[in-house]
Hints:
44% of the residues lie in helices and 15% in strands. It is of the alpha/beta class. Strands 1-9-20-19-18-17-16-15-10-11-12 form an 11-stranded mixed β-sheet, with helices on both faces. Helix 16 (386-393) crosses helix 18. The longest helix has 23 residues, at 468-490. The radius of gyration is 26 Å and the shape is elongated.
Amino acid sequence: xxxxxDARRMRTADAATIRRGTPPDALMENAAAALCRILERSYPDxxxxxxxxxxxxxxxDGLAAARMLEQSGxxxxxxxxxxxxxxxxxxxxxxxxxxxxxxxxxxxxSRGGFDVLRRALAEADGVVDALFGTGLxxxxxxxxxxxxxxxxxxxxxxxxxxxxxxxxxxxxAVAGPAVRAAVTVAFGAPKLCHVLPPASxxxxxxxxxxxxxxxATLEHGARRVWLxxxxxxxxxxxxxxxxxxxxxxxxxAIVAGSRGKAGAAVxxxxxxxxxxxxxxxxxxxxxxxxxxxxxxxEAMTSGLPESNGAxxxxxxRALLxxxxxxxxxxxxxxxxxxxxxxLLLETVLAGARVPVVADADALSAFSGRPGFFAGRxxxxxxxxxxxxxxxxxxxxxxxxxxDRLAAVRSLxxxxxxxxxxxxxxxxxxxxxxxxxxxxxxxxxxxxxxxxDVLAGIIGALLxxxxxxxxxxxxxxxxxxxxxxxxxxxxxxxxxxAHEVADAVPRVRAALRSGLAxxx
Length: 519
């Protein structure tokens, strides 16, 4: 996992690296070289680029990048937000180097500067945004605002240096105009704005690059927030020997479905089987067994007593006895909210020792009572969407979304469980406070049933022997990556949840072969 930093911790890591002997101008050169490398790899056909530089070190990165792009044969039009004579230190040194290569900056603060910028943007293939970085602490105004608006209006792809200008490194809030980047090249480590919505939506594709700051230095400055990597999922996908037996890969129970919601049980089971579970048994209302067998013959079924199409409380003892023979269980998708079913859930969740993924109705049944899960005798993973998290915490979805980090930490602490707060860049929190941010996924996942598939995937990893945190992190990564693999064919809408499940084996294969991963 990659540590995620805020502005203060990034400055601390920079300073520590410089104290250990790395010259500050070397860090700037490394950042600029990485920026150019990603730009040329992402847009190999670009011949003309506008580079817009701000007054601070981010502007210095841009000045160095402008010189390197010019050296590589790309035509550069260079713009500075204010008088170039105001640059100091390493930024001033990079201005001098740019001038020596014939690059003459146009100051946007001068008469006609914005007219020149607009003409240059119209002629350019793309833009390098190096106006503001981690030091920005207030909304843009004046010339800075005009520059960002002109760059956005140009319609040209934008590569941002470290942070799209206008965003704050400290979190996901967007307080004013900001660059909408196609690619953001994060220097050293991702920042909170890269991974927390709505700011993350301005960053485009995020690429984290090494600029010479040691990993240990970055980790020392981290605030226990981490970005999950492909390797975190790959580590849970060991090779399967030729002599493998289905029982070697976990027995998973899925307690799900009710009249009108049987599809949730099918999707959870399909997700589990596609994620590699050896044996999957769906425990459901007796009347649903035939439907489930017809929809997914690969899963076994076990009927339980029902009341009005939902599980009845009198089936709790039999279910508890049965779960003792499984390696893990997924409980909740499509169960409904009848009083009988809630009584069964209370009995089973309190008494079962098996690791459990509690999803959907197994969460809503405990609204305002997250502490119930802390009393469980086995490991627990909760997989709420913001509404379910809000009900558990006794608050509103809007408040959960306004500070997702605080909400998921609170829920993990109160429940004693690993919590997956679903949404754009889903968060996986431990009771101790550590949080992993999932980088995979797309708007395609905003479709009915995708959460049921996720619960099944995590359940399969739990049944295979993974710990709750590892299963949650890897399962969430796989789920999002499966949707990402379908985006080239489907765009951003129209996905059917079972298609996510069916794409998981291809993602597993790509991971195992080293063809899938983060940039």
